[in-house]
TrEMBL record:
Species assigned in the record: Mycena venus
EC number from the UniProt entry: 3.2.1.-
Coiled coil: none
GO biological process: cellulose catabolic process
Protein name: Glucanase
CDD domains documented for this protein: GH7_CBH_EG
Signal peptide residue numbers: 1-42
Record key words, sorted: Carbohydrate metabolism, Cellulose degradation, Disulfide bond, Glycoprotein, Glycosidase, Hydrolase, Polysaccharide degradation, Signal
Length: 555
């Protein structure tokens, strides 16, 4: 009974959502028999549609308060799996239709790569992806002739069409103060249109910056310009090409996703989920692996019961405020009001990283993350000890620790990780692991089972894709830099703000977090061991022992 298995299955099946190009194109197949003749043994770049990466700016910051930032002019690229895959660079016969490969073009993975080309993307028309200045919009379902569902894009290096941007904490450490690895990541997110069952995700994967071109020994001619090289901690097996070899061997079409399937190979790498969310629930989750960088897996090295034999920690160590016991912190009209825009700040503290902290900024207020209210688990940030306590409290196997915990996340960071942004629904577990009771066969009231207010019957892709076709996520104002360099606001927004259901929020004071004169503010700590701060609460709140003897809070 492991939540792990479900969580991993959920991500494994869904991070892909492979797209094939409208199959109507295959009607032009008579045009090109010649296309089948391999010119060179390589995965090709198609030329039917010019590939133009949508521009996106982001900022590198120093100092404090988001005032010393320099703008980087970069762009984003659509992942290869969503692209039209056809025979020959300028052919029109599909290599992959729906969820099956053309066995003539693809008798084996190498021949398939030599015969098949990834084509350029019509970003807004086909995929519902658009950018404007520093904002990226990802639409869930497009109105195109053949609706596209979900998408996944990567940030390119500034001015480059052939290399992904990597985020490397060593560089950060170099130009900033001590104890900093991947610090001060900040972005504004608008999830107000994302209901149950959807996931707007922003995360880092330790993909190769060259999209796997070097590892392909010349077989991958498409590269980052066409979004190749994806990997993550679920070791997904739906990826169509891995290091220049098609995953067509042993491909099994998904029984419940007309666009996806799985091959015998999976592609693994450490993953830092900075943000996985809809308007009901949110989580941030590091996932270490026993192998650093991209690695190719088969069988149980891809995934196994409760992650123990798999290459990666598929479950991860998640901080989801609702799951951690604060049911009024994140959601529409709540402390972090998801019916409005807000800013998410994630701090990676220490070299190596010892703690990952979360702040929100909304309406000028800096809101500290919610505190755990689970018996035996203290704190409002991810540390190795928080994860150990959480796994014990929830009865989960601690594969986060067995795959190396925060130490491995630090090493992955040092090597550089690629920024991924996506919107997706979940063909394996209906996203219940994010926003509802999960797994279904455990009591919803058992510790760690309920993750949000969505119904256990919500989130089926068929429902979500019809009822929430217009959903979208907008990521804007991405900043990266030293600790405290990317944001400003009135401290203590979460601690000193009273939420009026339906009436927005009222800032009652602007004193530092958790301290209003001699008594602690709402949600602030007011006791525990060790604790030397105030032990009384401002009116009308009272000091409640949340996790005795360690933590009491004003509620
Ligand atoms: C819950 O379901 C999982 C997967 O089907 C199974 O392995 C586990 O034994 C079940 N647990 C209970 C308590 O029924
Ligand atoms: C598969 O590819 C071959 C060779 O190009 C082509 O003749 C055939 O029509 C294709 N099959 C489908 C179903 O597209
Ligand atoms: C999970 O892993 C532990 C440790 O390897 C093992 O003892 C346990 O049986 C596993 N549980 C399941 C459900 O596979
Ligand atoms: C969809 O199919 C996958 C296998 O490809 C399976 O693991 C998953 O449970 C299925 N999901 C649903 C909701 O039926
Ligand atoms: C960031 O700001 C917080 C709150 O003001 C402070 O506690 C922390 O020490 C600062 N960190 C750095 C590295 O300046």
């Amino acid at each position: 009974m492991d939540a792990h298995l479900f969580v991993l299955a959920a991500l494994a099946t869904s991070l892909f959502s492979s797209r094939s190009y409208p199959s109507v194109m295959s009607r032009y197949s008579f045009l090109l028999l010649a296309a089948l003749l391999p010119v060179a043994l390589s995965q090709l770049a198609g030329t039917n549609t010019a590939e133009n990466h949508p521009a996106l700016t982001w900022q590198k910051c120093t100092g404090t308060g988001g005032t010393s930032c320099t703008t980087q002019s970069a762009s984003i690229v659509l992942d290869a799996n969503w692209r039209w895959l056809h025979q020959g660079t300028n052919g029109f016969t599909n290599c992959y239709t729906g969820n099956t490969w053309n066995t003539t073009a693809c008798p084996d993975g190498k021949t398939c790569a030599a015969n098949c080309a990834l084509d350029g993307a019509d970003y807004s028309g086909t995929y519902g992806i658009s950018t404007s200045g520093n904002a990226l919009t990802l639409k869930f379902v497009t109105d195109s002739q053949q609706p596209n569902i979900g998408s996944r894009v990567y940030l390119m290096a500034p001015g480059s069409t052939t290399e992904y941007q990597t985020f490397n904490y060593e560089n950060q450490e170099f130009c900033t103060t001590e104890h900093l690895i991947l610090n001060g990541r900040r972005f504004d997110v608008d999830v107000s249109q994302l209901p149950c069952g959807l996931n707007g995700a922003l995360y880092f994967s330790q993909m190769d910056a060259d999209g796997g071109v070097a590892k392909s020994n010349g077989a991958n001619k498409a590269g980052p310009k066409y979004g190749t090289g994806y990997c993550d901690s679920q070791c997904p097996r739906d990826i169509k090409f891995i290091n220049g070899v098609a995953n067509s061997a042993g491909w099994t079409a998904s029984p419940n996703d007309t666009n996806a399937g799985t091959g015998t190979m999976g592609t693994c790498c450490p993953e830092m989920d900075v943000w996985e969310a809809n308007k009901i629930s949110a989580a941030y989750t590091p996932h270490p692996c026993s192998i650093l960088g991209q690695s190719t897996c088969t069988g149980t090295s891809c995934s196994a019961a409760n992650s123990t034999q798999g290459t990666c920690d598929q479950a991860g160590c998640d901080f989801n405020s609702y799951r951690m016991g604060d049911t009024t912190f994140y959601g529409p009209g709540m402390t972090v009001d998801t019916s409005q825009k807000f800013t998410v700040v994630t701090q990676f503290i220490g070299s190596p990283i010892t703690e990952i902290k979360r702040f929100y900024v909304q309406n000028g207020n800096v809101i500290a993350n919610s505190q755990s209210q689970i018996s035996g688990v203290t704190g409002n940030s991810i540390t190795d000890s928080f994860c150990a306590a959480q796994k014990t409290a929830f009865g989960d196997t601690n594969t986060f620790a067995s795959k190396g915990g925060l130490g491995v996340m630090s090493q992955a960071s040092a090597a550089g990780m690629v920024l991924v942004m996506s919107i997706w629904d979940d063909h394996a577990a209906d996203m219940l692991w994010l926003d509802a009771p999960y797994p279904p066969n455990k009591s919803a009231s058992s510790p760690g089972v309920t993750r949000g207010t969505c119904s256990p019957s919500s989130g089926a892709p068929s429902d979500v894709e019809s009822a929430s076709a217009n959903a979208q996520v907008i990521y804007s104002n991405i900043k990266f830099g030293s600790l405290n360099s990317t944001f400003s606001g009135t401290p203590g927004g979460g601690s000193t703000t009273t939420s009026n259901p339906g009436g927005g929020s009222t800032t009652t004071t602007s004193t530092p977090p958790g301290n209003t004169g001699s008594c602690a503010a709402q949600y602030a700590q007011c006791g525990g061991s060790p604790w030397s701060g105030p032990t009384c609460c401002v009116s009308p709140f009272s000091c409640k022992a949340i996790s005795p003897p360690y933590y009491s809070q004003c509620l």
